[in-house]
Amino acid sequence: MVCSSSGVSVRPLAYAGIEKSPLWLLSRLHSRAPRHPSTRGFGGWLRQRGRCRRAFRVPCALHARIPTRVAGARLSCVQASGLKKKKTRVLEDTAMTLPTWQFFQVRLDGPVAWIMLAQPQQANALGAAFWDELPQVVAWLNRCDALRVAVLAAEGRHFCGGITLDLLESVLAMMKAAEAPEDGRERVRDEIFRMQASISSLELLRVPVIAAVHGACIGGGVDLIAACDMRYAAADARFCIKEVDLGIVADVGTTQRLRHVIGLAALTELSFTAETFDAAKAERLGLVGAVLADREALLAHVAALAGTIAAKPARAVRGIKQSLLYARDHTVAQGLVQAAEWNATLGFSPNMDALLAPLRARTRKS
């Protein structure tokens, strides 16, 4: 049993039964201990002859798995309760569980998603599963209407040990197995394009992504954090653009993205030398925003930062991310047009009056 804020007891109901029901009321639920986010959820009551007869409950961590339209209304827009149309098609119970991945562990903590690299026994080196699964993780999170921020962190001693040797060997084998050199080169190029798209998917995530780096962040790990919106590090973090030592060019985003973060001169030196540099230098270069004492302090810092961002108007935060990425790849004039069009079409919040109220109050006092 779960108790709603109005004191109504809510009993679980199979989701398959919802489409057979004529009228539903949806509302946010809180247990008797509202301070614990895991006990919150969405619930619904079937209204028959003016009375609520049957009910269901969805934990907040899972409610985004329901299609964004339930009887014509988005769940994230339901504040108290709203009458819904009848015969709504929803997911079955078996589809309401959080997906599992081989390389990643993902958890939702209210409006914050924690994306954990979860292959610590291999120093979170980027094997085949990583490249396949990262776009899947992003696509799933983009369906979470309540999501506001994502944190990218890692289990174990190191953030990322680079690309796995097995993957590099497979690329070489791909080239050698081709009947003609041209075919081999084309296959390798297509594989690189696929890897580029995987890393770039982080920029397609609608919310800001904060990277939390501890231990080693080598080669492909630098490509990965370069695609994040913000980066922070523990004092033991160390970085290296390693590709030149492997006889290849960094081809998955470091060269293209970091020149806008640390500048062309610093990027040129680090790319030619494969220098391993520490967190203090990373902060001086602007690669990371701050250095924390250890992994625990790092995760606490990014959690607090994520909470601050999550409290801001969601539409504005999404617009800022889009504008920053657009400005990076376009001229100033084009960026100004994009920002104006965003605000004119999507930017202004329906809560604008409430957001302006404190400013108006201060103006009246002065």
Helix content: 25-40%
Structural class: alpha/beta
- Distance between the amino and carboxyl termini: 53 Å
Would you give the CATH topology of the largest domain?
A: 2-enoyl-CoA Hydratase, Chain A, domain 1
Radius of gyration: 24 Å
The CATH homologous superfamily of the largest domain is called: 2-enoyl-CoA Hydratase, Chain A, domain 1
The oligomerization state is single chain
Q: Could you tell me the number of beta strands?
A: 15
In CATH, what is the class of the largest domain?
A: Alpha Beta
Sketch the topology as an H/E string, one letter per element. EEEEEHEEEHEHHEEHEEHHEHEHHHH
Order of strands in the sheet with the most strands? 7-8-9-10-12-15
Structurally, the number of domains stands at: 3
Mean pLDDT: 78
Q: Biggest sheet: strands, sense, closure? A: 6 strands, mixed
Low-confidence stretches: 1-42, 52-56, 59-96
Number of discrete helical segments: 12
Share of residues in strands: 15-25%
The assigned CATH architecture of the largest domain is: Alpha-Beta Complex
